[in-house]
Each structure stands twice: as C-alpha cells, then as structure tokens.
Design brief:
By secondary structure, the protein is mainly alpha-helical. 79% of the residues lie in helices and 0% in strands. It contains four helices and no strands. Helix 1 (2-35) runs antiparallel to helix 2 (43-61) and helix 2 runs antiparallel to helix 3 (65-83).
C-alpha cells in the first residue's frame, strides 16, 4: 500500500508542473465562452474573469484554499447569471404589443 501511494506521489509531482498552465487554459476558455454572444450583458463576463483570477491566485500563488473555493463559487455564480433568462431589450414596441394581445 505504501509503495502504491509513493508511486502516485512521484507521478503527482510530474503532473503538478502542467497543472497551473492547464488550469489557466481551461479557465480562459470558460471565460471566453461566457463572453460569447453577451448581448450587452457584461456582468457575468466580468465576474467570471475576476473569479478565474482569484481561483488561480488562490491555488498557485497564495496557496489559500478559501480563495480557491471563493473563486469556484463566483465562477458558478457567473455561469448561472449568464444562463438566467432576461427580457430581450431589442424587441420593438409593436412586437411587445402583439405579444400582450395574444
């Protein structure tokens, strides 16, 4: 059992050199996906970007688990905010009137 854990401990140190860049890459892709077709809603994008920086700093720079959890929570909050339906502000007055009549 000890040898088994020792092998994975050594393998973990090899993977840890790639962990920070891969995490940064995936977080960047997540924030870019949040920014895709924002339709004028930049709040979730801004919150997601701040959350990604807090998560990376908490994990790889400061080593603070509380910041990691706060970053994860903020990133999830940004995703929910981004997915939350909102009234379409580009609808014309006639379209709104037609919907009210129907």
């Amino acid at each position: 059992m000890v040898a088994y854990l020792g092998v994975f401990g050594v393998a973990g140190s090899v993977y840890s050199t790639w962990l920070a860049p891969l995490t940064a890459l995936w977080l960047a892709l997540t924030v870019v996906a949040m920014g895709w077709r924002t339709r004028g809603r930049y709040g979730p994008l801004l919150l997601g970007g701040i959350a990604a920086v807090v998560l990376l700093a908490g994990k790889f720079v400061l080593g603070q688990p509380a910041l990691v959890f706060a970053g994860i929570a903020a990133l999830l909050g940004a995703a929910v905010w981004r997915a939350w339906p909102h009234p379409d502000s580009s609808a014309c007055d006639e379209c709104v009137k037609e919907k009210e009549i129907a």
